Amino acid sequence: MERLKIVLLLAALVATAQTLPGQERFAPSAGSANFIVVGDVRNCNYFPLSADSRTTVRNAALNAGLLSESANVSVFRGNQESARWTQMISAHSSDTGELVVSGDVIVVQSMQTIRESFQKNAVLRTELGGIVVTLADEGIAVGDVLQQTGNIPTPDHQLKIASRFQGRPTINQAALSETVEHGDVLTMSRVSRTTLKGFGRMAPAFSEWQGSTTTNVSPSDSSGSAVFNNAIPAAPIPEATSTSPFLQIPGTFYAPDHEPAEPIENERDEFGSVVKSESTAQIPVQAVSQSNATSAASEFETAPVPPTEIQLLNETTPESESSSMSFWNLLFVGGLLIAGTFILVGSLRPDESNIPGPQFAAGQGGLSAAFNGVSFDQTSENDIKLPQIQTTNMNMENANDLSIQSSHLSQPQAQPVPYETATLAIAQTHEWFGSDWRSVRKESSTSQLNISPAPIETEPETVKPEQLALSAAVQPAIIERSSYLMETIVQESLSIHAKSDSSSESMIADKMKSVSPMMNTEMVASDSFADLEDLLQNRLPVDLCETQLPLRISLFGRPAGPRRLRIDAAHSKIPAPHMNRAAEHSKKPSVVASANMTTPNEQSINAPGSLDRALHYLQDRTDS
Amino acid sequence: MICAIDFGSCWIRSIFRNPKAPERLSMYSEKSEYSLIASTEQHRRILLEHEIPFAECEGSLVVVGNNAAKAQWLSRVPCTPLLADGIVPTDDPPARQMLSVLAEAMLPPLQGSLNLCAVTMPGRAEGTEAASNNAEFLCRLVRMKGYIPVVVSPAEAALLSTCNDATFTGISIVMGAEATSICVARYGMSLAKETIDIGSNWIDSEIAKQFKVQVWDEDGNAFLDMESVRVWKHQANLHLRNAVGDRERMMSRLYSVVLDRIARTVSLMLSSTSVRNAMQRQRLSVMLSGGATMVDDFTNLLTERFIEHEIADRILSIRSGKDPETAVVRGALIYGELEARAMSVEEAA
Lengths: 624, 349
What we know:
The complex is a heterodimer of chains A (624) and B (349). Chain A has 624 residues and is of the alpha+beta class.
C-alpha cells in the first residue's frame, strides 16, 4: 500500500505540473550585436554595440563603472576558451583603440581593494551566447546556474571555468557542485575527441550532479540565490519586484509581455516548488529580468535597450511550450499510472527480499573478501573498505607493534598457511611484466604520503558473525606471517651488507651485525635501525609544510625572464601600405618603383623611426 | 640533523625528520620557477595586500616558488624556470639569489653535532662541466646553511626509497623535467648509472611548438605556454597506447622516442662488464620514479621498447613506485641517514 500511495502521489504531482518556462533554454541576443561586461563593475550586464561599432574595450569597461582606480580587463572573444589578451585600464590611461566585437565577454578585475559594495557576478558562455549571472550569496554551485538557465549538460558537453579572479586556477572539467565565485567565466561547449579544440578538451567531460555539497541553505532562504541578468528588453515588471529583486520571476523566462502579473506569481510558486522537489538542488536559484539589474544600477547608468530581435525570440517561447507540453504531460501521466499498476501487482506477490541467496553469498565471500582487501595494497585506498579487514590489520599491528605493510601480505591466493609463499618472495609477490599499474599512479600524493595506518573506524554492527569467525581464524596466521616476514627482512638486510665489498658498506654491515643480537621482533622499535626500517618501508607519514619566505626582499641584477621559452620576437612597427592605386590607371612611375631607385642607405636613413633607433642606441651606449 | 634536498628543474623539495616527532617527516615543496611582474606601485601594492612574498629587482618585481602561480595573473609572460635546461643560470643573477633564498627557507635549522644534507642535482650527466658547476653552486648553498652536503644521484636515491622489497636490487629510472637518470644496482650498490639529457620538458615544449600553444606579452613577444600543456597532461586522462586525437598521438610518439633512448641506455648498461659480472643473467625489477612517469600506460610503452631492444628477458617487473614525485627526496633522506650512521661508525673507530 505504501508503494501505491507513492505512485498515486507522483501521478498527482505530474498531472498538476505545468510547463516551466524558466527551465527552457534562454536564447540570448541571437543575431543581435551586443557584448557583456562582468566582474568588478557597478553595472554588469549586456551592452549593445553602437551603430558604428566603434566601442572600444576601455570605453566599454569605463561605461560599466569601474569600482577602483584601475582594473585589468580580459576579453573572451568568439569561441576562444581563454582570454587571448588583457589590458590594464584606468580613468587616466590611454585608449589602445581595441574595438569590442559582438559577443565579446569583457571581464574586469580591479587592481585595488574595492571599498564600496557591489553585486558579485559571473558569466556563463554557451554555444548560443553569454548569460550574465548575479551571485547573491556564497555557495552558488555551477549546477544551480546551469539548471536555472536551462543548460543542462549532456555527456557531449564539457563544462569548464575558463577564468577566475585572483589567480585561482581554472578548471577544465568543472563538477556541477563546483562553487561559482565572483568573476568566474563558465564555458559550456561540446566535446569532440576527434577534432582539435584546444587543450583540456580532449577528455569527454561528464560530471555528475553533486548537490549534496550545497545543501547548507534552506530552500526558502532567498539569500542564497543566483540572479540571471540578460539583455532582453525590460519587461513590464510589477511594482512589487522592486522591493524584492531576487524573488522576481522574469520576463526572460516567462515572457511577461503576454502574461499578466498574477500568472507570473503563480508560475513563480510552481517554479519554486519544483526547485524544492529536486532533492539535489537545495539552494533556490531564482531569476529576474535584466530590468532588475538596470534598476539596481540606475543610479550609475542604465543599460541600453538591446535590439528588437531578442524580443521576437521571447515572444515565440510560450506558444511553443503550451502547445508541446500538454500532450507529453498526459503521456507521462499515463505511463506512470501503468507503472504504478505493475508495482501494485508486484507488491501483492510474496516479498522475496529475504531470500537467503545474497546473504549466503556475503557470508561465503567473507574469507576471500578479507584476503582481497588485505592484499591489494597497490590499489587505491577506496578499494579497501571492508571493516572486518581493517580490524584485522589493526589488531595485527597492535599485537606486534610492527607496521608491516599490507603489500607484503599481498598474495590473494595466500591462504592462512602462508609460510611457503611468503619466504624470499617479497619481490616476487609483486611480479608482473608490463601490467597496468594505473591505479598505483592515480593515488593522490596525500594518500601515498600517509602510509602509516590511518585511524580505522570499525563498525561492529555491520560485521556478520561468520565474518568475525573467519577473521579470527585468519588473524593468527597473519600475525605469524608478519613476524616471519620481519625476520626475513632483517636477515636479508644483513645479508645485503655482508655481501658488499666497499669499506663504507662493510662498516654499515659491522654496525648492523653488532646490533643484530638485538634485532628481534621484540626490540625492533627501540633500535635506531628500526627508524631507518620505517623510512625504508615508507611507513613514516609526511607533513607538507609551507615555506616561510620573506615578504619583501631586494635582489641584485636584472632578471633574464623566460627567454628560453620565447619563440617569436615582436615585430617592429609595420609601415603603412604602399599601394598606389592611381598607377593602375596612369603610366606615372609608381612609388614602389621610385623607392627602388634610392640606395639602401638612403632608405634606412629616410625610413621612419631610424632616427629614434639611432638615438636609443646612443642612449644605451651612454647608459652602459 | 639529517635532511635532504632535491634540486629539481620543476620542483625543489626538502625533507627531514620532525625534530619534535621523529616518527613523522616534514617536507617543503616549492616550484623552481619565478614570475616576472611589472615594477609599478600598483603591482607592488597588490602583492603586499595579498601578502604574497616578492623580490624587487632591477626593472621588475619577482615572485618565486609556489607563490609565482598565485601572482601569475598579474603578468602576461610565462613563469621562468630557476634551473633552465637543468643548469644553474650564469646570466640570471636574481635566479641564483632566489635559489639561495629558497635553500635558506627550505632547510631546517641545525641541530646536534652532525648536520648532514643529502643533495640531488638537477639535469646534466655527471662529469660534465655543467654538472660540476651545478654541484659547486648548490653545495655551497647548503654549506652556507651549515650543513655538510652529500651528493647523490636521483636514480640511486629513488632506488633506496622504492626498491626495499626487491632487496635494493634492480634498475631505477627517474624521469624528471630536464633529464632522465638511470641506475643499475645490486643490494643497494650502484653498478652502473647514466643520465640522459632529455625529460618531460622536451615533450611539453615539442607539443607546444607543434600546436602553437603560445602566450604573448604586451610587446607581442610569443612564448611557449608550457604550463597549459602540463595542465592538459594532468587533467585529460591521457593514454599513451590508446591515443585519441592529434595531440595525444604526438605525445605518445614523443614519449616513445624518450623511452626508446631509455631502453637503449638500459640495454647498454646491462651489457656492461660490471653489470654482467655481478648480475649474470639475473632478471631485474625496474622501478619508475619522477613526475613524468605518471602518465597512463607508461609501463606498457616501456615494456614495448624493452621488447624491441631484446632485453625483455632480463626484466622481472616494471612498476611505478609509491608517490613517484617524492621518491627521490625520500631516498635522498635515507641516503643521508645511512651516511650519518657510517660517519658515526668511522668516528667511533
